[in-house]
Amino acid sequence: MSAIMMSGKALAEEMNSEMLEMVNNLKTKGITPGLVVLLVGEDQASQTYVRNKAKRAEKLGVHSLVKRYPNTITEEELLNEIDRFNRDADFHGILVQLPLPKQINAEKVVNAVDSKKDVDGFHPLNMGKLLIGKPDKIACTPYGIMKLLKRHQIEIAGKTAVVIGRSTIVGKPMAQLLLMNDATVTMAHSKTQNLAEVARTADILVVAIGRGNFVTKEFIKPGAVVIDVGMNRDADGKLIGDIKADEVAKVAGYLTPVPGGVGPMTITMLMYQTIESAKRI
Amino acid sequence: MSAIMMSGKALAEEMNSEMLEMVNNLKTKGITPGLVVLLVGEDQASQTYVRNKAKRAEKLGVHSLVKRYPNTITEEELLNEIDRFNRDADFHGILVQLPLPKQINAEKVVNAVDSKKDVDGFHPLNMGKLLIGKPDKIACTPYGIMKLLKRHQIEIAGKTAVVIGRSTIVGKPMAQLLLMNDATVTMAHSKTQNLAEVARTADILVVAIGRGNFVTKEFIKPGAVVIDVGMNRDADGKLIGDIKADEVAKVAGYLTPVPGGVGPMTITMLMYQTIESAKRI
């Protein structure tokens, strides 16, 4: 027996077609969805991420602009730029690529983005709407995982879900989304005792801890749906997840591969929320 | 063996002394903490709640104003009133007594209160700050429960906590506060299967479901800390909690009574947050 692989790559492709149609519809109404990405400094990883986002936007007919600023930009200057894009009707999504240089308070910058244009879903107002159960913009990674679960018609209501990892951008919003869908949700983390035992109660297990191959078959209830959010490099520089895929695949019912599982969904949901944001104007 | 009773009444008294001192300190600096309560219509229960809040404020030297509006007030008129108090430096806390009449969108009204004056902790921005783990104003009932746990030196880190009930004003913020304190937290609710079994994993069990005597001894891990948020009336009109106290007290290590447990903490934290809000001006 081997787990069914849940391909984020395949779903992203499906959603691309759907989004292309959404964009074309908008264009017939004279609206072109626009996304501006603010990039400060020369961080290599950030450059790559931003390039990928711009490429994807272009593929979907979303107008994208990458605004580059020197590493020496002041907080005030950056806040002024955000204010400008908040008021610019051509852009329905604003993304500030993190990390930011030390002289800038990242929290303040994230909070300055108009929550309606916060297509990343990181703004505290959007986090609050999610906690209240009336989400608007949603953090892209957990939102993408929900899409994957729905695509595979995974039943969530009444099920036991365990989320390992409590980051603001993955674990916490993930737990709220599962709760909204009537799962009984346990939030586990580095201070959790008997972590394998807790994980083994899960019909749906989401792992986002950033430790390569950490989750072994002892963590898995037979037949469980297992979601691997990890993106780690092994000693050889190979991309690996938080889950020891080879052995877990023999116990789980469903599993997301790394790469090609959760990864492709994050950028997909970023585009999706940008287009949705444009629809509401 | 019988559970140690965690008296909210006693802690509220202690905190009253502390708060009196805080208010006196503020007054020497020329600041009098101010709370305005907006009351629409003639709802009997609301009248009582508002009276109690005003009485408590007076006792602590907090300036309080109860603004009454007829049941026929429009949403726009009420929003204008809120705007006025948002800008009135004499008031550090604004509380809109719920429920509101049908013609008024309660969500819109709650969102209109300046989040810095949202001493109830219901504003989505405050909910979001809590989810992010950087709380400002916190929903008063769960905040009061945290004070009770700390007062009794209950260890939270690494413990298993179960919250039954997922309301916006109790269950959800409660789960976040326990998580922030490094508990492993399960959010359970009406759709949870094997609820007693889930509850029995809890070192700390918080019950907020609004069903009298629902939780029996079968739900309790021996020695657990059990918090009863329920306020129900039995057939004779007597106030009872969600927990069958007589039998649970024989199994639990700690238990909050009803009345006199969680109840007195809610209004206490409302005052506390009003005073804290005044300190920051």
From TrEMBL, chains A, B:
Natural source organism: Carnobacterium antarcticum
Keyword Oxidoreductase carried by entry: yes
CDD domains listed in its UniProt record: NAD_bind_m-THF_DH_Cyclohyd
Chain ranges of the Tetrahydrofolate dehydrogenase/cyclohydrolase catalytic domain: 6-120
Protein's gene: folD
Record HAMAP family: THF_DHG_CYH
The name this protein goes by in its record: Bifunctional protein FolD
Summary of subunit composition and partner proteins: Homodimer.
NCBIfam families assigned: PRK14186.1
